[in-house]
């Protein structure tokens, strides 16, 4: 017995000393970020905290909506629930590395009555004996069971690491859900305010057109103009009403979308009016942005990097299947049988069992190697996908920056045009007062100015919407 124990200890010592952590060669990224800078960020001058970029808009209502959405949004809640699931799986994988221990016990009671078959014969010869035999007794058994599979070659450790990386990637999913929620609330809020203002401009334009019709109708009544001018204006008024008929529905669609993003019922949901005109106070694009900072901030890229680590751990786990597995089992028990009888003894016993098993994969028909190849291919795929996402993100940031500056310049030109148009309207109004122009000339100029304002509003919406996209591209908002 001593000889076998020494042999086992020697074998175990050799196995453990020969074990080394399984190394996995992760393919290198083909995207070189050394000294890389964005091409379109040089014009950016504003200092913005991307974590809460909405505060830079100085709109208390927008800030309140986004912060409430980050607390109550269902997409974020779902992502958090998935995170709990991922963490539980990671804890389960870690728990699988330790031993298991259990207790077993059972007990019983018995009572037996056996008739004495020779009692009549013995009674005839003068022996007084009992008619039958009575026995009662108790039985009991208790035991302890334990087992453990030492992770000499890191199979379970690799599985646990893969699960932990998966949980961390899911945490980035929570960050991504927060990023999308903040940007979606802001976009819907912008569109809601846009349609509010567009409806106001449309109503003012309609009032100018109706005033012009009254003026032309009066001139027609006295024979100064033909009826075709009135008819033409009637057609334009009807067309204008048709174009603007759907504006309230479009406005309310975004209002309901905000309610859903906040986890509220869309019916009856309202937003207070704001004294601040968002489209006249659009913040400047954030400065100080570099590719490496974007990669470190964006949740999708962070999750992709964690996915590479998870895939590498899965490769290590697959390679560990090439090595022996050791399992240790122990069973200890104590039993007792107690019989209340003059004819039987009361035996009891204690016993134990300890065994160690080793399984060595000698022939698997290539199953282990094929599994390693599958996991390795997924690792290479994860690296390629990461590189692709990095390149797309770098392209997206420069494109959105360039568009932001272009739209801003467009707005400046449109604003300059509006200044000229307003100057023209004032001049025509003065000439009308002097009798050199008719009222319809002044009203036409006012309608043109109102249409200019509508174009500026559309361009301002494009600038504000693109700025939200820029925040998303930079990974801000979580």
Automatic annotation (TrEMBL):
One of its GO terms (cellular component) is plasma membrane. GO terms for molecular function: efflux transmembrane transporter activity. It is a lipid-anchor. InterPro entries: MdtP/NodT-like (IPR010131), OMP_efflux (IPR003423). Its main location: membrane. It comes from the Bacteria. It is found in: Cell membrane. Coiled coil: none annotated. Keywords: Lipoprotein, Membrane, Palmitate, Transmembrane, Transmembrane beta strand. Belongs to the outer membrane factor (OMF) (TC 1.B.17) family. This is Outer membrane component of tripartite multidrug resistance system. It comes from Taylorella equigenitalis (strain MCE9). The lineage of its organism: Bacteria, Pseudomonadati, Pseudomonadota, Betaproteobacteria, Burkholderiales.
């Amino acid at each position: 017995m001593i000889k076998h124990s020494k042999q086992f200890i020697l074998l175990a010592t050799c196995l453990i000393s020969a074990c080394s952590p399984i190394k996995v060669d992760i393919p290198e990224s083909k995207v070189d970020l050394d000294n890389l800078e964005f091409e379109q960020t040089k014009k950016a001058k504003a200092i913005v905290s991307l974590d809460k970029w909405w505060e830079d808009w100085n709109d208390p209502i927008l800030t309140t909506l986004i912060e409430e959405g980050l607390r109550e949004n269902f997409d974020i809640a779902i992502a958090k629930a998935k995170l709990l699931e991922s963490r539980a799986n990671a804890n389960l994988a870690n728990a699988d590395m330790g031993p298991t221990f259990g207790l077993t016990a059972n007990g019983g009671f018995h009572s037996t009555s056996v008739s004495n078959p020779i009692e009549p014969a013995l009674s005839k010869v003068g022996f007084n004996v009992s008619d039958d035999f009575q026995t009662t007794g108790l039985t009991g058994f208790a035991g302890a069971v334990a087992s453990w599979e030492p992770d000499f070659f890191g199979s379970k450790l690799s599985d646990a690491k893969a699960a932990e990386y998966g949980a961390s990637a899911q945490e980035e999913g929570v960050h991504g859900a927060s990023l999308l929620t903040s940007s979606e609330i802001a976009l819907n809020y912008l569109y809601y305010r846009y349609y509010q203002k567009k409806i106001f401009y449309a109503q003012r334009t309609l009032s100018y057109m109706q005033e012009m019709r009254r003026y032309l109708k009066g001139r027609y009544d006295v024979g100064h103009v033909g009826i075709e001018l009135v008819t033409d204006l009637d057609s334009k008024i009807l067309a204008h009403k048709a174009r603007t008929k759907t504006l309230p529905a479009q406005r309310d669609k975004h209002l309901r979308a905000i309610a859903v993003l906040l986890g509220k019922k869309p019916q009856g949901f309202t937003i207070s009016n704001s004294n601040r005109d968002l489209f006249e106070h659009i913040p400047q694009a954030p400065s100080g942005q570099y590719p490496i900072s974007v990669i470190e901030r964006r949740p999708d890229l962070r999750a992709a990097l964690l996915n590479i680590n998870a895939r590498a751990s899965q490769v290590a786990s697959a390679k560990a299947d090439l090595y022996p597995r050791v399992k240790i089992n122990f069973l200890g028990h104590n039993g007792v049988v107690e019989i209340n009888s003059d004819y039987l003894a009361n035996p009891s016993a204690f016993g134990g069992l300890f065994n160690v098993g080793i399984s060595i994969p000698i022939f698997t028909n290539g199953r282990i190697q094929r599994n390693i190849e599958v996991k390795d291919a997924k690792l290479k795929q994860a690296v390629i996908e990461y590189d692709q996402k990095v390149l797309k993100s770098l392209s997206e940031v420069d494109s959105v920056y360039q568009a932001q500056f272009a739209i801003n310049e467009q707005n400046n030109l449109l604003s300059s045009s509006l200044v000229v148009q307003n100057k023209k309207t004032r001049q025509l109004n003065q000439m009308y007062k002097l009798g050199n122009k008719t009222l319809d000339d002044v009203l036409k100029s006012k309608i043109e100015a109102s249409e200019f304002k509508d174009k500026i509003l559309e361009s301002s919406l494009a600038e504000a919407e693109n700025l939200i996209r820029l925040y998303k591209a930079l990974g801000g908002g979580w």
